[in-house]
């Protein structure tokens, strides 16, 4: 991946990146759509344990991509809405919901426009999955949006890449190579995708942001939400570093005896 520094970025480059990768992701082994058709539940055990029973709850999934996690919550009994700024992703999510006969609503909108796009509707759970916050420039604005979307007594559940991951070297994961406190914007250029690194693609420039753990917590608390849980985990979903080893649970960790750093974190915060 090449960092482009202050080079001018075309308007809508992030949306173009995601739009182009929808068919690529649908065809990838990473997302395993055939496996999902057979058993439409890709939620991780730590997520379902920390969220709890969602039967009958109104759940909103922000930045839902083509809806695998969203539909997994529907499979577990929630009344779900998925929202994403990529129209091709939402079209694919709707098609997948129809195919699986799972009740779900999907809406095309930027995350910051969600309250207006949903006409002021509120939810029992607002869920945001792994790999979402790095696309958002304004974390305080995001947290305020979440607070507006929650019904009193509802809660935010966030499962996200730990910000430490983003500043370590790609090979070992043991050396700091970037500034932890450099928020960005960071402009990158790379072909392919995390789901298929060798794919040929045209929309390859993205703008991303680095949010420290303190910034995330401060934004959530600043929006008036009450922090209930903050967990740091020593595992992740992909072989982010060459030294990681996949366990029987499908998660990746540093090998036994190696120094560890947090790789994921989860946060739960309630609206009074």
UniProtKB/TrEMBL annotation:
Keywords: Methyltransferase, Transferase
Domain annotation Methyltransferase type: ranges: 61-158
Keyword Nucleus: no
Molecular function per GO: S-adenosylmethionine-dependent methyltransferase activity
Pfam families according to UniProt: Methyltransf_11 (PF08241)
Entry annotated with the keyword Hydrolase: no
Protein name in UniProt: Class I SAM-dependent methyltransferase
Organism for this UniProt entry: Frankia nepalensis
Lineage, opening ranks: Bacteria, Bacillati, Actinomycetota, Actinomycetes, Frankiales
């Amino acid at each position: 991946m090449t960092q482009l520094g202050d080079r001018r970025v075309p308007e809508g480059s992030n949306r173009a990146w995601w739009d182009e990768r929808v068919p690529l992701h649908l065809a990838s082994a990473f997302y395993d759509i055939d496996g999902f058709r057979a058993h439409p539940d890709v939620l991780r055990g730590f997520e379902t344990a920390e969220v709890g029973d969602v039967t009958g709850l109104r759940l909103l999934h922000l930045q839902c991509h083509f809806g695998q996690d969203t539909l997994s919550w529907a499979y577990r009994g929630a009344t779900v809405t998925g929202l994403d700024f990529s129209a091709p992703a939402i079209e694919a999510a709707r098609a997948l919901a129809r195919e699986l006969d799972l009740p779900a609503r999907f809406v095309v909108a930027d995350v910051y426009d969600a309250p207006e796009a949903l006409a002021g509707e509120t939810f029992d759970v607002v869920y945001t999955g792994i790999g979402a916050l790095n696309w958002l420039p304004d974390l305080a604005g995001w947290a305020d949006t979440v607070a507006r979307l929650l019904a009193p007594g509802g809660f935010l559940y966030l499962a996200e890449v730990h910000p430490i991951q983003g500043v370590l070297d790609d090979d070992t994961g043991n050396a700091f190579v970037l500034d932890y406190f450099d928020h960005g914007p960071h402009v990158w250029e790379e072909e392919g995708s995390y789901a298929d690194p060798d794919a040929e693609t045209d929309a390859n420039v993205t703008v991303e942001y680095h949010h420290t753990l303190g910034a995330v917590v401060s934004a959530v608390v600043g929006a008036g939400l009450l922090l209930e849980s903050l967990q740091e985990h020593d595992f992740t979903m992909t072989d982010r570093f060459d030294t990681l080893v996949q366990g029987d649970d499908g998660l990746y960790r540093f090998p036994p005896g190696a120094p560890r750093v947090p790789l994921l974190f989860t946060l739960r915060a309630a609206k009074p």
